[in-house]
Amino acid sequence: MLLRLLIPLIILAFGGLAAWRLGVRVEAPKPQPAPPQVLKTEILELQRSDYQITIDSQGSVRAHYTTTLTAQVAGTIAKLPDRFEDGAFFKKDEILAELDPADFQVAVSAADSRVARAEAVLVQEEARAKQARLNWQDLGYDEEPSELVLRIPQLKEAKASVDAAKAELEQARRDLERTKIRAPFDGRVQTRVVGLGQAVGASTPLGEIFATDFAEIRLPLAPRQLNFINLPSHPGDPEVPVTLSDAIGQHHDMQWDARIVRTEGALDESSRELFAIARIDDPFGIVSGKPPLRIGQPVRASIRGTILKDVFVIPRYTMRGVNRIYLVDRQNPAIRRTTIEPVWSTADVLVIKDGLESGQWLATTRLPYAPDGAPVEIVERPVAAEAPLQGKAAKASGS
User: Which CATH number fits domain 56-63+212-307: 2.40.30.170, 3.40.50.150, 3.30.160.340, 3.30.390.10?
Assistant: First the structure.
């Protein structure tokens, strides 16, 4: 009975002791000062240099002119050579189609006969004119005979008849020659729309052909790019070199040389862009043997712009925010946040004219948190770093 009373009392005593211990206030630990954190970064030493601007654009290849081939005389298609098939090449003056020449040969023969008859009449009139003068002299007249007596009007009419007959013969021969439809230039067939035995008129389209001596590419240029390129605007202005590359991946490593020869006279109303016309010789590789650039093929263009003198060219990956970079104080290595105003930029580099000085150090390591004035430790590189520049731009040397 006594044991039953002691057990609850013991439990209560231990519970009260535990509650008292848990209620004792524990002194909080004193904060310890954090050791100063030193940032580590690699650097580039800034130097002024000249930078060759390269402007990127794109467009599609087009023939410098396309012609609808037509017949000059009416007739029936008698021959269609293989060179007048879709996609076939041809040379200037080669025959692309022939009409049935039978009717035109008859017309030449008839015109030739009319010339012979007219010449015979002319010979007779010349003889009559000579005889009329002799008769006048035999009659003993002293005055000069009139033109009518000498049959001069009849002689002129006979000469005119000969000229007219010769002109008709020449026209008949030209019409016969025109039954052979010849290529007006070196080119290629885009489409042929006639077949053998088809009757065509003097203006019936036979097909579409285009020249292959050179092609053109219409390249859009944004207004901000126009200040960095000297485009030809007058006859005799120097042409601008252009490098073309394939935009659809068939020949991604192939390049073609072109040149801007002129610009369009007005800005595009929707985009406010100016279109420059680039010309490429031998686009189908007939002479050079290069892979062809087909009509309508999209291409990328790298246009050589002006050269910026005495500028700083820095890698784009060194940017820290909008137009901000981190410089490092040379005397006391610490971060200096600096705002820049690029005069030109690409996917790889920024070009700055003002606001920097030669010899300054540029931090290139991406730092997660770098307040202004934070101390840094310079990480030496075994190989000097170089900024990825374009064209013939000078390179920034690493520290």
Answer: 2.40.30.170
